[in-house]
Batch of 3 targets.
Target 1
Amino acid sequence: MHIITIAMQKGGVGKSTLARSLAVAAARDGLAVLILDMDAQQSASQWGERREADMPVVVFSTENDLPKRLEQARGAAGLVIIDTPPARSTEAPAAVEVADLVLIPTTPDVESLEQMPRTLRLCRGFGRPVWAVINMANPTGPAEVAQTREVIRAMGAQAAPVVLHRRKAHRDASASGLSVQEMDGASKAADEVTDLWAWIRAEMQIRH
Ligand SMILES: Nc1ncnc2c1ncn2[C@@H]1O[C@H](COP(=O)(O)OP(=O)(O)O)[C@@H](O)[C@H]1O
Ligand SMILES: [Mg+2]
């Protein structure tokens, strides 16, 4: 069982959206996927309730419940994706500690990038492999992505090669309890998510 934790101190950078999109991509790839929603705001859980499909399974978990939830998932789930709350929390360290891979979504804005070092330190403290994922990039401004990569590199970290651009389909999908791939499989937003998942899958050496 593989565990991906999605963490970033800054709110609104796309943690929950990324958790859901990757979970659907992995499920479509044949994996049994569990989203553990550790955010008290429960946006992933509420999305799960809006859905009709039975995959991914979405379960809320407190920090205290986490070991038990992971034990229950073992054998049943091929992939667990943990969504964490923003701000300083006790949930994020617990979720990072159990992760095989940590993803830190960030928008290209300075307000987000300024918050990254704290989350990076957390991952390094637990010795966890970590990648930044640039999200909500301007679709018509490639220079912005290049600059953002440079800022992330200067922090001693790396951004995933696949970038998610700002696309309305992400919001529309969320409202319908869907992911972008389910909302419009031919959209650029869907292609980006599929490419990101393929890269993560290879990076984590998850076999078919
Ligand atoms: N790539 C994207 N393009 C456009 N909107 C996005 C994108 N990613 C996320 N969003 C939107 O941004 C808002 C915040 O995303 P969310 O996943 O809830 O962030 P977080 O969990 O980090 O607080 C949501 O309305 C979501 O639909
Ligand atoms: Mg969230």
Target 2
Amino acid sequence: MSDRLTRRGMLAFGAAAGLGATALAGSAYAQTTTPAPKFLPLPLEAKPRPVPAEGYILDRIGDAMYAVTAGGNQTPFVVTRTGVVLIDAPPSLATVLPSAIRRVTDKPVTHVIYSHSHADHIAGAAAFGDVFRIAHEETARTIRVARDPNRPMPTVTFRDRYRLNVGGQHFELSYPGVNHEAGNIIIHVPQQRAAVMMDVVIPGWAPFLNWGTADSVPGILTAHDGLAKLPIETFVGGHIHRLGTPRDIKDSRDFSYDLWHTTQRAVAETRIGDYFAQVEPGHQWGAFKLHYQAIADRVEPEMIQRWGDKLAGVDIWTRDNATTIAVSLLLDAPRNVQ
Ligand SMILES: [Zn+2]
């Protein structure tokens, strides 16, 4: 890490911690040329929960829904009168998921709903045999191309909406458009006052690097809008330590829009021409690199100041996510994001 980068990182951290430049310059940390990574502490709401001896946490949602959480991954299931409906089958939970289900019911898994195609969520599906599988048509298309035997093809697909009724429980599947991935759906379970959407809202946390290589950044905002309208008490986001609430959806939505608007302002306040003047004539990539660095320099300290003590990891990916939004503003150029 260069001295320039080191100092910039410290200033951002210092701004969040309420430290002035004088305090930083006088600290031992400021004089170290190769400091160990020093991240903002995790807010209380983002800290890990104790894991029982079984090696996973089993949360109950409503009167028939459960979620299994272990190792930063999380997946729910619903016990109906006739069988168990699984939502995803993460390979990382392959050993604990069957025993977690057996703890609450003897009924077999009869259905698997695929939230999207990503292997970390559904590449444990083959282990549940020839069950009824439901997915968005884009998810089916991606699975077909991937030719992964651990992700068997869905039995049925849908485009906009699908209502699944199993043993007295209802599942309202809907597609808000391309978001984290093309085909990533919202699963509303009204009788349990719960909703599931993977990899968009991570309760208590700022987004992962580029929202996990999001297929559409404006679509991430649209997906948040869809989730915010649901009449629910519990939200399952698929990762890290705990379940969410409508408050977590609101925080993630507010953060995402704030990051979008702050980046939009930083783009408006900087001029790419200024950076072309600093590089070899015609060096397109060099000028864009400097431009995006300047945008991230403006966005990161603001976001850390407003969100650093509310959401975990704001200091980790905000620079990268600001760059992703700057590119999206240039290429997607959405006019529907307010
Ligand atoms: Zn994913």
Target 3
Amino acid sequence: MSGLSDKIFNVVHYVANKVQRPAVILLYHRVTKLMQDPQELAVSPANYDAHLAHLAAEYNVLDATQFLDHVINKKPFPERAVFITFDDGYADNYHEALPLHAKHEVPALFYITTSKLNTPYELWWDDLERVLLTTDPLPLKLDVNIAGQAWEYPTDSFSAITETYYALQQVLRFCKPDVIESVMAQLYDWAGTTAEGRPTHRMMTWDELKVMSQSPYVTIGCHTHRHPAVGMLSYDEQLSEIGESKRLLEEHLRIPIEHFSYPFGSRKFLGSKRYYNADSIKASKALGLKMVCANYHGQVHSWSNSYALPRILVRNWELPEFKNKMQQFFKY
Ligand SMILES: [Zn+2]
């Protein structure tokens, strides 16, 4: 976004937040320490502990039932209302985040991608990082077929490999799940490695998720089966990807799933490529989902679209920075 449109959005947000008290939805992915974190998805356990302590003391953290009640009934939010969400279903959500939620007695909603649960395999962007950034040595160039088209990427130096990683990551975001799987299979062969993932990047087991779902501080939502940009799929494919994750979660956890978040979920797009579209909203409604979160900056008001709510991505900020950011999130 340009500096000017940033400023315009800030003014629009500022005025909206003066008209009505906003709520803020926070988006986390992982609570752990990693050797490298090119997507910046991990918040350290110490920082997350401090975030929750601050939110518990200074903000009104709503649980999913309370938040949904405000959203569905278009009720203005209480002062300093915050809703905490996690995407993807990493094992550290169970091992690191859950005990901190119990310690601070703070609720959160965890959106789960189901295809890699209970397996030693990683989600594709982690898998891409594992193959390209942790395999040594690699061949000097990568020839790969992506949806019937031949591509060539340089991999003859560390900086070339890093650039290739970021470039492929952008391309695969808008590919269908079968294409991503075929690209990864070619990469394993090319690098001389296997699909077996790193224990540090695994998803929860069904047993872990079951315990998690029984915590009074936890609500579970779905996040598709294989984590595609649903906006690139036909309506029927969207129904199937979203519906499969909902069905599996309901079957294993024996609870109704009412919440969903779009994978990636940004409103930014590339040409005709979208992360979600009108069909995504239609499919969510057809599946009986009651509230859907997207992933773009903004606050929630009683007039917000409950099938594409804005969320604010939280990075690995230390407490002073987190405090400042939280104040800003309620203004702009
Ligand atoms: Zn995700």
